[in-house]
Amino acid sequence: MTIFIGCSIKKTDVEFHTPFYIQLFLNSCCELVFFAFEYFLIRIPLFGFADDWYTSQEHLPGAIHGMSWYLYMVICIGQCNLMLNRFIVLKNPTSNSLMSSFKSSLCLITFQFIFPSFMIFMPINCNLKSYYVNNNKTLVVEVGDQGISNFFLTVGSFVGIIICLFCITIGTWNIFLLKNLQNRNKYYEKRLKKEKPLLLSVCIQTFNFIVLTTAEILQFFAGKFNLDSLYAFTIYMYPLSEDMLCLFHPIILYITCHSLRRKFLYFWFGRLFDKFRKNKTAPLSDIKSMYH
């Protein structure tokens, strides 16, 4: 889905060459990279087959852990940007000025990527450390400096809570605006058909983000009060919440948006279908020649 949206934006498809899909594409790319970092830091240690390798590594750069937190923050702000994008569109449904929308989106995207960049550089002089929790059953890999690790947890939880509350507030307002437009005029009927699946996907993505933030908050309290069992539970909870965050969004878009689904299928299978159709309707002379 990410490849499809990226190619559609590059081809300047009218439906996809919009601030919403550009923001969505950037968010999806960040989610995939975040997925890779979290595999290295959380999932593979949970599988248990590489414990010896992790525990023997003493010089893995702490910036790896910082990068995972940076991407988490970028995704948080990106989700907020998507909600704001829907709010701007629903607040001014008659506005056709894409230029102003692109300018506001550019400012939001710039803030999204620059603001959390300090998280990459904070642990740059530290290394990763590996240790066991939950009665030596769960391997944890994080930055060696406990102060920086606690700072990441605190800031991540704090920012996550703020953005969750913001997204819930704006999302509720968006639903109200959508309902208001639906009741006002049939002029917006065609526009609303496009807006409903986009808003639905953003709302569901916000729910997934809330689950991830909840895991973050639980991990914060578990670390603060030395609750090893709860800390281990949050480590196991992370993969599920990450899967929901990174994988559910394209599925929801595919299910709810008819035009996107049609173009997506044609993008991946259209050439094969066209080739099959050409072969099926091949001239009789071409068919005969195959048997000579």
UniProtKB/TrEMBL annotation:
UniProt keyword Methyltransferase present: no
Membrane-crossing residue ranges in chain numbering: 20-42, 62-84, 105-124, 151-177, 198-221, 233-255
InterPro entries: 7TM_GPCR_serpentine_rcpt_Srv, Nematode_SR-like
Superkingdom per UniProt: Eukaryota
Alphabetical keyword list: Membrane, Transmembrane, Transmembrane helix
Coiled-coil residue spans: none
Pfam families hit by this protein: 7TM_GPCR_Srv
Protein name in UniProt: Serpentine Receptor, class T
Species lineage: Eukaryota, Metazoa, Ecdysozoa, Nematoda, Chromadorea
